[in-house]
Amino acid sequence: MERQATFGPNSRLPGTPYILVQKIGSGSMGDVYEAFHTHQRQTVALKVMATRHIARADLADRMKNEAATLGRIQHKNLVALYDTGFADDGRLYFAMELLRGHTLRTTIDANAPVRPELAVELCTELLAGLEAAHAADVVHRDIKPENVFVCASGEVKLLDFGVAKVGQLTASLTQTGFQLGTPRYMSPEQIEGKAVSGASDLYAVGLVLFELLTRRVPFEDQEPMALAFAHATRAPPSPSSLRKVPLPPRLEAAVLRALAKSPADRFPSARAFAEELAESLRDRVAIAQSSPQQTVRMEIVSRPPPEVVLELSRPLSTPPPPNAMPAAPKKSLLALVFACGIVVVVIVGVAAMFMFKSKPQQAPLSATSAPPTHISITESSAAIVAPSAVIVAPSTVSVAPSSAPTVSRPLTVTARPRPAAMPSVSHAPTATSRRPSSGL
């Protein structure tokens, strides 16, 4: 029965200066722990071979190869190697820098499709790390979102060189026709078991970029054989056809070039790929600057309504802000109110003067007509004398017996000598009602 090593919090890896704090990941060959180096007082990421693989010399050789690869390449976009060795139980380990952040898989699952600028920025840093690896004659062979780490600072790191090809050193580790890598992100030559090169890594970067921009890979077949056939023979779809907003033409062309079936048709190097991505964004800015009308239109659509429109559209019951209205209109309003007051006073004075100066005369009644029962006068400052009741008012006078029907007609007042038989009625300047003597 194979002995399984178990580790709890703060347990020491046997025969090493490392205390295992917590497990942070697992791989095909082993586990990764957050560990503390007791001598150097440093926190690291410690990759330890799984106990079940101790007897497998080929996997031990691959871990040694990974450690050697990391040790020979120093670049800000590659994880740094600190230490390597064997534990007392025979397991190989190596210590790397501990990274804080998340993998690119988390970014895709949470935010894809991302803005073209962000996708280009992430892949440009990834290509910078690959350029350093290719310069050291190292082919990664397993580039995928899970092996690309985005640090909390925003820096991108390429991880897991476990299946990397280092010159001719790993030729003996790979059998002819044997596939290494993740099928969904493998190049056609990897799937067919042919020789790989830096162009194989560029194909995988093209797949990662495609997924960042569209939230899916170009070939989604689930069966391994169907997926392998798609990578080898089928043309990828246009990334713009899978987005609501099309990509800049030059950026889309760069993605499709990286996904060419033949390695010779792809970019000649990681640097050339990164430079083309940067140029594609510069072309986008140049196109936007050369179309001022379109740019202005987009700005107007995205800009909120002018402030004056917001002021006019407020309800009348809502007082405007203190600084929204200048002081001049307030003075004009006060002047207008004052002028209206003066006009009203003048009109009232003129009406009163007519009241005091007018001498109303009694109008004779026709002998053949019935006594008036109701008289309405709309002329200002007029006076009425009627047989039954007298009401004097500045604007209207009404005489209404209680039993007779109501008749309305205009009154014509003519200045004549009053008949001797009619009793005299005195007119007071105030609008009060008086009854004549009982003789009337």
Describe the protein.
The protein is α+β, with helices and mostly antiparallel strands and 440 residues long. Among the domains are: 15-98, Phosphorylase Kinase, domain 1, CATH 3.30.200; 99-309, Transferase(Phosphotransferase) domain 1 (Transferase(Phosphotransferase), domain 1, Orthogonal Bundle), CATH 1.10.510.10. Helix content is 35%, strand content 12%. It is built from eleven helices and eleven strands. The chain has helices spanning 57-72, 104-111, 116-135, 188-191, 198-214, 224-233, 249-258, 270-289, 292-302, 307-312, 328-357, and strands at residues 11-12, 18-26, 30-37, 42-49, 81-86, 92-97, 101-103, 138-139, 148-151, 156-158, 165-166. A six-stranded antiparallel β-sheet has the order 1-2-3-4-6-5, covered by helices on one side. It has a three-stranded antiparallel β-sheet with strand order 7-9-10. A hairpin with a 5-residue loop joins β5 (81-86) and β6. α3 (116-135) packs antiparallel against α5 and α7 (249-258) packs antiparallel against α8 (270-289). The radius of gyration is 50 Å and the shape is elongated. The termini are far apart.
In short:
The chain has helices at residues 57-72, 104-111, 116-135, 188-191, 198-214, 224-233, 249-258, 270-289, 292-302, 307-312, 328-357; strands spanning 11-12, 18-26, 30-37, 42-49, 81-86, 92-97, 101-103, 138-139, 148-151, 156-158, 165-166. It has 440 residues and is α+β, with helices and mostly antiparallel strands. The strands form three sheets. The protein has a six-stranded antiparallel sheet with strand order 1-2-3-4-6-5, covered by helices on one side. A three-stranded antiparallel sheet has the order 7-9-10. A two-stranded antiparallel sheet has the order 8-11.
